[in-house]
Design a protein that fits this description.
Blueprint (H helix, E strand, L loop, with lengths): L1 H18 L8 E3 L4 E2 L2 E3 L11 E2 L26 E9 L4 E9 L1 H14 L3 H8 L3 H9 L12 H9 L7 H30 L1
Antiparallel strand pairs: 1-3, 2-4, 5-6
Helix pairs in contact: 2-3
Amino acid sequence: MKYIIIFILLFTATAYALDTQTNTTGSNTSIEGNYTGGATTYESGSESSSTTTNNSTSNIKSAPPTASAPPVSSMTQDVCAVGISAGIQTFGLGLSGGKHVIDKNCERLKLARILNDFGMKVAAVAILCQDERVFESMIQAGTPCPIDGKIGKEAKALWLKYDHERPDYETYIKRMKKREVIDLKINKEEADRLELHTR
């Protein structure tokens, strides 16, 4: 313990001796620091002049923060919702956002399955027929979708009468117009053929 105290005292005395500075008239005083040059001479009747040049430079570069898209979950598997999120980052500005999108086809399938489980088969088919692909496939199969409580031939007659209620109405109109053009062309060709045979 005694040696440790003696060592500390010697270290302190040495540091104090190195830190002290003695100036004598007419001698040079050294100025130390982060600059060049620095010896100033003071003489009787003379002026003091010194030049100091600072060499420190600063060049700090950092990447901009990243815009993180928020996580959007559907909470449960029995919800027909899909989470969508996105983010964009520029040098000075970042934007991100998210939302839920309802899947209508998923809802239609779930409703049809529940109605079928309750024994409402016609109602289950009717709700599936709200999809134009299902509606068209039912027409092509010769089993038109239910309308106003009617099925089969009665439903087909009502769909022809109220065709504007079809879920595929726009596609249906385009198809009918093309068929009319083809039918007119075929009728004209047949009329020309008959006219040639009668001559």
